Amino acid sequence: MSVHQLNAETRSRTDVIVIGAGQAGMSASYYLCRAGIEHVVFERSERFHTWKNERWDTFCLVTPNWQCRLPDFPYRGKDPEGFMLKDEIVDYVEGFAGSFDAPLWEGVRVTRVAELAEGGFEVDTTAGNWHAAHVIVASGGYDTPILPAFAGRLDDGIKQLHSRHYKRPEDVPEGTCLVVGTGQSGVQMMEDLWIAGRDVRLAVGPAPRSPRRYRGRDATDWLYEMGHYDQTIDQQPDPKATEAKTNHYMSGRDGGHEIDLRQFARDGLQLYGSVSDMEGGVIRFLPDLEKNLDEADRSYMGIRDAIDVHISGQGLDVAPAPAFEKVWRPEREVTEIDAVAEGITSVLWCIGFRPDYSWLKVDCLDERGKPVHRRGVCAREGVYFLGLGWLNKWGSGRFLSVAEDAEFVVGCIAERLRGGAERRARG
């Protein structure tokens, strides 16, 4: 691994600039190295910064280890059906980084990318000005934590944290913590606090949930066998809606288990609907708790039903599963509480992030500020994206398919570079 330091001798022109050294950017670098294409990778912090510094202590994969398939570096451990813990994930990605010699510049921030009149791109960085024919944006989608505007109106005596800053239960003040959001982070952080014996409550959003094990196998094993992970975004009935979907919640903790919020409620967890407003010590909720629980169960049952159809269609001799039962339902919907009177001393926001492309001065984003591309390749020649959810398949933003995407994008770059060389030779 060549981690470059700033110096005046380093050239400021290259064929490809890769922005970001997470698994997507480093996968791109792997294939660029293999193709012999000159490039640099700029990382504003350190490689794999998010895995190292922006995960809580008990974080683990939600998908099984066998889905870790970085370029020519599949998971080779002893527990392919298990779920790596945070430190094991860091060891895995660092092992991949050590398998080749990436031209990596750490601690270098890209501040501006703009088109050049003569072609190619000008890339301003904290390491000076660079020119490149191609730019791969692999900076991820976790730049800016999302907080609703009304969060600023909550009583100052109630501490507010975003999921990015949660590491362990001790980070949360004594008293009751209201966790907001039921994506994968929200339910797992709630469970982390619950297991630690903390007083925690949960505002339930519209996130779907998934079985963990079903009819003798992990649900993801069945889905892989069924070809679910081979479906592309173009095959989805509504691609934009698919891109916007929240991930199904379940857990890889302690060998993996599903999370049924109804069971938690039966065991004493206070559930509310979606947070709709805050003012002083008052927190308001939409009356959508039962609706959200029902929707989560509908996605859960949809996965079970699809697996049942597959098992039947293949004539597999697999034992049937117990019938699904809704073990709890709310007797009434609580739409307003006095947080101070309820003893709530903190709110943990787990409602996601948004990317920041303010530095990207190239016409490649839509009216929502989202990249416009086809399989990572933009209409504006020379601009590419990697590492986004559903870039091409479900696994594009994960270890499962990022290598496939990176290889495709680098193949497009190699073809364009060859075409340019041929034109210059003829000219």
Automatic annotation (TrEMBL):
Molecular function (Gene Ontology), one example: monooxygenase activity
Key words of the record: Oxidoreductase
Top-level taxon of origin: Bacteria
Presence of the UniProt keyword Zinc-finger in the record: no
InterPro entries the UniProt entry points to: Auxin_biosynth/cation_transpt, CHP04046_FMN-dependent, FAD/NAD-bd_sf
Keyword Cell division annotated: no
Name listed for the protein in its UniProt record: MSMEG_0569 family flavin-dependent oxidoreductase
Organism expressing this protein natively: Algicella marina
